[in-house]
Design goal:
Elements (H helix, E strand, L loop, with lengths): L8 E6 L22 E7 L3 E2 L5 E2 L8 E4 L5 E5 L2 E7 L3 E4 L2
Antiparallel strand pairs: 1-2, 1-7, 2-5, 3-4, 5-8, 6-7
């Protein structure tokens, strides 16, 4: 993938939701929630402030993150759907 996000944007490859519940019940596609977890595949250079300074990104390629359910824009490349989100829309990094 040759996609380089600008400024404080991050390209995330969503991780699909679980196919079965904890109790072993298979969840149909219509009942699944939109994925909110993903793996960072590309990061921008950082947020640029009015005075020209750039804040470095806190996430890096390979991080597993949780982002807002309705945040970002979808982008499809080579049959894979990615989300482009602002770093501020990332809620947590999974350890």
């Amino acid at each position: 993938m040759n996609l380089k996000p600008l400024y404080d944007r991050v390209v995330v490859k969503p991780i699909d939701a679980e196919e079965t519940s904890i109790g072993g019940i298979i969840i149909p596609d219509a009942a699944k929630e939109k994925p909110t977890k993903g793996e960072v595949v590309a990061v921008g250079s950082g947020k640029v402030f009015d005075n020209g300074q750039t804040r470095a990104m806190t996430v890096k390629v390979g991080d597993k993150v949780i982002y807002g359910q309705y945040s970002g824009s979808a982008y499809k490349a080579d049959g894979v759907e990615y989300k482009i989100v602002k770093e501020d829309d990332i809620l947590a990094v999974l350890a």
